[in-house]
User: Fold Nuclease HARBI1 isoform X2 from Nicotiana tabacum.
Amino acid sequence: MAPLKKSKKTKKDSKKFKKIKHKNKKNKSIGIVAVENKGSSECDWWDSFWHKNSPTPGCGVPCDEEDGFKYFFRVSKKTFDYICSLVREDLISRPPSGLINIEGRLLSVEKQVAIALRRLASGESQVSVGASFGVGQSTVSQVTWRFIEALEERAKHHLKWPEPIQTSDDWCDQENNYSMLLQGIVDSEMRFLDIVTGWPGGMATSRLLKFSGFYKLCESGDRLNGNVKVVEGEELREYIIGGFGYPLLPWLITPYEGDDLSDAMLDFNALHETARSVAVKAFALLKGGWRILNKVMWRPDKQKLPSIILVCCLLHNIIIDCGDRLHPDVALSGHHDPGYEGQSCKQIESTGRLMRDKLTKHLQGISSPRKKRASSKSFASDHAEDKNGVQVQDLSECRRGYFMVLEYM
Assistant:
């Protein structure tokens, strides 16, 4: 479409506009600013555009205005208004000079967006697009690039990697209950030091660990990074212990698995289990003290449930920090549901294997077979737990004055 010729009236108005502009410059007053003024800006741009580009027989443009709008700009009027809302602030706040049509009126935000969309949708030349809107080629160029820069900045949230789709099976654990995992690290006083929750009960514990911030901190050297301790000529770094469901890592020590274990390995496993029982008891107290965690919830809100779990852990710690104690009958017999069978993780890092062997060698000198038998006979009685407390200290003194245990429920 060729550019439209200016009428005499238009030329006259244009000259008048230039005179006003020149006068403003002379008086040092404010020049043209693209503000949202309904009186002076072109808010009826669509009527004008539709009249100029109204369909003719055989042109392929829909006769219905709503369909015609979508034909020219590729979006509905509702989506068009949304796009305008995204870029409105940028198009108003940083107006370049000259954003006027051939009649000398400022371009509205809506008309600027329409020009840019038409240029992008049609691929026509700037001259042709300008003619259909009654603006010059340079205006089309400025408007299009301002729109592109604004939308590039304001619409980034529409370009993102999708969240993992979680089906109902993801939340179904081994007992076919819909549940949410809680992973925690506790100290020797059964205080929670770190927790991770919000993940579905069907997730493997080793995968849950790798999603945690604690794992990322340990792998980057920002956690469990205390000075290396030399014990009997062996260097022992800071570490925590975990059950069979976790990988064997240099900072996460798991027990030996298999049927053909040496006496030293069995001794190590016995001490390991005694230390881990502290975490098991902490979780049993948590679920027993705050029974909402042990009940079946009717249509729980998966967004709010992590907050409920966190607050229960905080209350658990407050009781310990204040020197208070829960009634001994509060604790549950176990922190997992009846019939639960833990999963075994087969991931073993060579540096983790070396660290565990060093610990085993050291413990072999301070732990006797008699102690091992005492610890393996009974964890039920308080008296046995008191005796085993010495062995827990044996395990912890390899590195520090207290120990940390990784467990989940």
